[in-house]
Amino acid sequence: xxxxxxxxxxxxxxDIAVQGIIEKKGQEIVxxxxxxxxxxxxxxxxxxHADSGTQxxxxxxxxxxxIYRNFEENPWQKEGLENSEWVILDYVSVVVHVxxxxxxxxxxxxxxxxxxxxxxxxx
Length: 123
Description:
A six-stranded mixed sheet has the order 3-4-5-2-1-6. It has helices at 10-23, 53-71, 101-107, 109-112; strands spanning 27-33, 44-50, 77-79, 86-90, 94-100, 117-121. The protein has one domain: 2-Layer Sandwich (Beta Polymerase, domain 2). Mean pLDDT is 90; it is low at 1-7. It contains four helices and six strands; from the N terminus they run αββαβββααβ.
């Protein structure tokens, strides 16, 4: 099933991205709802980590495949696959950050957006 892209599809895209992360066993998934944050650059930030560069790449590829399958949409911007330490998939309204564990805690993205509502958090 391919969904038509509409502005209000960002919550659905966020859910699909999370499923792609879960499929490849991404760890400590956090979804931040930025829609009520005045300076936000997207509707949602999704953050997770993995223990290896190989797993970081696999998670990013899984998210891309799931979103393409459902929306026929590629990321507007994609960065970090070369090193696979911090991959960013930017779908404009939804931005997915896949980190290697140590890089996630070094950069602390969640703390930068502390005023955002956490809409999903895995254990």
